[in-house]
Amino acid sequence: MGLRCLLTSVNSVQVPFPVYPLGMAHIGGALRGQGHLVKQVDLPACGEDYLATLEANIKELQPEMIGISIRNLDLEDSSQPRSIIGEVEKIVALIRRTSKAVLVLGGPAFSLLPEKILTLLGADYGIVGEGEEAIIRLAAELEAGTPPKKQLLYSKPSDKPWQEVEYDPAITPYYISRGGMMNVQTKRGCPYQCNYCSYPLLEGRMIRKRAPEEVADEVMRLRDEFKAEYIFFTDSVFNDSSNHYLEVCEALIQRKNTLPWMAYFRPSDITEEAMSTMKRAGLDAMEIGTDAGCDASLVALGKNFTFNEAVELNNLATKHKIPCAHFFMFGGPGENSKTLQQSIENIEKLRPAVIFAFNGIRILPNTGIQQLAIEQNIIAADDDLLEPRFYFSPQITPQQIDQTLKEAWQGKPDRQYPSQEMEDRIAQFHAKGFAGPIWDKIIRMGIGR
Fold first, then answer.
1. Nearest to 207 by CA among 244, 252, 251, 232
2. Which of 127, 190, 213, 219 is the Cys-Cys partner for 199 at CB 3.0 to 4.6 Å?
3. What is the CA radius of gyration of the chain?
4. Which whole-number Å values give the CA distances from 280 to 36, 436, 444, in the listed order?
5. Is the predicted pLDDT of residue 48 greater than 80, yes or no?
6. How far apart are CA 106 and CA 128, in angstroms?
């Protein structure tokens, strides 16, 4: 018969734009594929009365299993060091008051600190890593009356065929009305060695690819069934070295795709031919993880590309009329007044482009920068990092970085610092019916040049 399952996404991060809860949709598809009854509740889509909406859904469904997907620990921005776990505590308290269902935690944020968060929230189980196979096993054991004895269920990266994604028609209108954007993942895993990043911890270092034809089918489905106006490919890095991304583009071209799309890019190894192929497939904008503004800072972050490669990619994209946004983190290892000034000067070579800048780097568990922060006495060795902790180079103060960036970029809308200042502008454009990431409009309208 299957279990009655209620899935809840608690992501409240809306910057730089609202993001459909794709992880929950993957879990929903996996459970439904095994015959379970699934109801999804996305709390941002519920509005300010999300607790009342969640309670109503619990009372209506009377679920036997409730899953909570936790995407973020916090905003990862030192100018807004707000933890999100406190919000999840309220949700768990409501669930415990209104239901006897087995409570399961998962999601990227949970997987970073599973023991701590499981204990803090008092859930029955937690899934660490990708959840599709683990949630199926757990549901089967619960249905059979043989629940696992271990509370933490660890899931290894799997290269099995991807299961159908369960997009929810009750949730999609919220995102369609706020930029028209829906999400698709084409692969999992990240082979790079960036010392601050959690992607390899969450997805593994081996790239596991989705069949390009399946990706194209997903895009067509989102266009036809859910009226998506824009696609965001959520891969950690879209332009993989195996050129799987170009196979995806060829599949989109074969399907005569007309939906514009964007993705995260690494600023290296994109040729003129590759850019042309992506443009024909619908590439409309690029978000580029440049991360540092000079070569010394790039090396310190574990990058193996140069700043000049970022400039070359930006120029190539501009030639093909593709707007670019670059993301930078200041205050990383070795940052000082000299590297800061050099970075600001170098970033001027990225025109036209929108720059999103962050002061400090969120220290995440089991990353290289955590170990460095311990060695430099920035954090204690026993700091669990549940609350936001940021790495700042001992050679420069956060106040110096803040003042320098504000003075350099004051009145320049194509230089966004602090980044959250873009939030109101995005909401205004979406309210007027504009689709897409919105930052691209700054370039298309020639603002800030």
1. 244
2. 190
3. 22
4. 40, 18, 19
5. yes
6. 7
* Backbone angle region of 385, left / alpha / beta, with phi > 0 → left and psi within -120 to 50 → alpha: left
Tokens of 280: 């024909």
The pLDDT tens digits of the residues spanning 299-336 come to 999 999 999 999 999 999 999 999 999 999 999 999 99
The residue with tokens 């992501």 is 11
Tokens of 195: 């010392």
Interhelix angle 398-409/337-347, rounded to 10 degrees, is 30
Element of type H or E holding 186 = none
86 Cα distance to chain centroid: 20
pLDDT 10s digits, 27-44: 999 999 999 999 999 999
What is the DSSP annotation of 353-389?
-EEEEEESEE--TTSHHHHHHHHTTSS-TT----S--
User: Other C-beta atoms within 10 Å of 143: how many?
Assistant: 17
Buried b (16+ CB within 10 A) or exposed e, 24-51: bbbbbbbbbebebebbbbbbbbbeeebe
Domains annotated on the chain, with CATH: 4-154 (3.40.50.280), 177-444 (3.80.30.20)
pLDDT digits (tens, 9 = 90+) for 335-379: 999 999 999 999 999 999 999 999 999 999 999 999 999 999 999
